[in-house]
Amino acid sequence: MRNERTRRLTRRAFLAVSGAAASTIVAACSGATALIAARSDDRPPTDPPTMRTATRADQQTTAAAASASATSEEPLTTGLSTPATIPSVASAAVSFPPQIAPTATQAATPVIPSGSQVLDRTFVSAALGRQMPYFVYLPVGYTESGIRYPTLYMLHGHGGSNTEWIGYGLLETADTIINTGQIPPMIIVLPQGDQAFWVNHADDGQRWGDYTARDVVQQIDANYRTIPDARHRAIGGLSMGADGAIQLALNYPGTFGTVGIHSPTLRDYQDTASYVSFFGDETYFNAHDPVHLTQQYPDRARAFNLWLDVGANDTDWHDSTLSYHTLLTQLNVSHIWHGDWPGIHDGYYWGGHAADYMRFYGAALAGE
Q: What CATH number did the domain enclosing 320 receive?
């Protein structure tokens, strides 16, 4: 069995949960400094600059705090930038389909776009029967643009939470390259997946797959101006989240059109059964394993805009990821492959390639 504890410790310096009581997570986006609802934590901080990993207790506290805040009419995030600090992104904001033509009055009156936002929200998942938190990034100009946007769902790993990608700088990076016109604006969603592998469980009835691919997607489509189709919906993830991204895309056809697989942790049945119990017997495992699913549904895989990468020095997972790349090639599944970038299974690697990931998602969602 892989040394999961070592990998989790390696990530600690990147997870965006401070040790101060009632601390505030700040997403420093260019064009806006978005203040996210406070996370409660009464434990002392670790020695700087290391941040500790979010625990299940943190996640439950987050959901409770956000639930209490949700009764207010005021948005949780109101830290918009002043007009003078917002770069012009008019061409990117209005050129991405579908467009809504401005009225004559609007065309004659210059509009200073609102700042980008990172909102901390909760909703009740029908599949899990409880409230679940998520973060949603809204690009510069979202408030007043009136247009719809493509959506990217990014899944965290086994040792993290939905703050993990924030800690690795994904939202800040996305904001920068959107505002400089390198990719079209989009909505980005960071759902919470605990350590449940983003899959419906065989043994305890918890339906984490249905929660992610159905409940979360429906929540976002119902409450934000998305383009609600597979072509304009992407899913990606790191480590456990990488497995989840391709598994969900294959098991819920017609939901996602673009898939990013970043350092997957591909195990066989014996290894998985020694690690967690909720994959049930081998038949159930095969129905949720990325390798078996790809072999079973190659036509579904061929329909995706697909990305696969792993650090060249990721000794635990490089070989299995390389084997998956070989399988995709044998099945004529077109995909972008990076297996030679220096790095291991940690936040230095994922954060260091956040811009590469976002350029892939931006181009795929724009149909390029």
A: 3.40.50.1820
CB atoms within 10 A of CB 312: 14
CA distances to 93, 139, 189, 190 from 237, rounded to whole Å, are: 26, 21, 11, 10
Half-sphere exposure of residue 110: CA atoms within 13 angstroms, side-chain side: 3
Give the pLDDT confidence of 153-194 residue by residue, as tens digits.
Answer: 999 999 999 999 999 999 999 999 999 999 999 999 999 999
Number of domains in the chain: 1
**Tokens 């997570």 -> residue:** 25
Nearest of 356, 201, 360 to residue 279 by alpha carbon = 201
Flag whether the pTM goes above 0.90.
no
Rg (CA), the chain: 20
What's the first-to-final CA gap in the chain, in angstroms?
41
- Structural domain containing residue 252: 4-365
Query: Cβ atoms within 10 A of the Cβ of 100, count?
Result: 11
- Report d(CA 210, CA 248) in Å as an integer: 9
The tally of CA atoms less than 13 A away on the side-chain side of residue 19 is 13
